[in-house]
């Protein structure tokens, strides 16, 4: 899966129009994703990509950025 494909899915799950993003883009500060939205987003990503939600818990330090979420998904896809 390519980063751009992941970003398209991310914006679909957020129900927002896509904007240009980078790996280091902060979800809270730059995309205005609040805490509740983040939990819902992580759950939706886990369901969409059929990866265990526990990966998001185990990698909580990565959840703050678009690239961090992408890394979690890649890790889950390789399991």
Question: What topology emerges from the helices and strands here?
Answer:
Elements: H1 3-14, H2 27-31, H3 35-49, H4 54-58, H5 66-77
What's a concise summary of this model?
This protein is an all-alpha fold. It has 5 helices and no strands.
What would the keywords be for this entry?
ACP-like_sf, Non-ribosomal Peptide Synthetase Peptidyl Carrier Protein, Chain A, 62% helix, Carrier domain-containing protein, mainly alpha, 79 residues, PP-bd_ACP
Number of separate helices: 5
| CATH architectural arrangement | Orthogonal Bundle
* Quaternary form: single chain
Return the average pLDDT rounded to an integer.
Answer: 96
Give the biggest beta sheet. Answer: none
Shape: globular
Q: In terms of per-residue confidence, which ranges show pLDDT below 50 for 5 or more consecutive residues?
A: none
Terminal Cα span: 14 Å
Q: Rg, please?
A: 11 Å
Strand content: under 5%
Protein name: Carrier domain-containing protein
InterPro entries: ACP-like_sf, PP-bd_ACP
Domain Carrier: 13-59
Pfam families: PP-binding
């Amino acid at each position: 899966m390519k980063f751009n494909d992941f970003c398209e899915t991310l914006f679909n799950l957020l129900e927002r129009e896509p904007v240009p993003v980078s790996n280091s883009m902060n979800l809270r500060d730059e995309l205005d994703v609040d805490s509740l939205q983040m939990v819902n987003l992580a759950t939706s990503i886990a369901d969409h990509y059929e990866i265990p939600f526990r990966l998001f818990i185990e990698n909580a330090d990565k959840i703050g950025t678009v690239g961090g979420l992408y890394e979690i998904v890649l890790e889950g896809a390789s399991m």
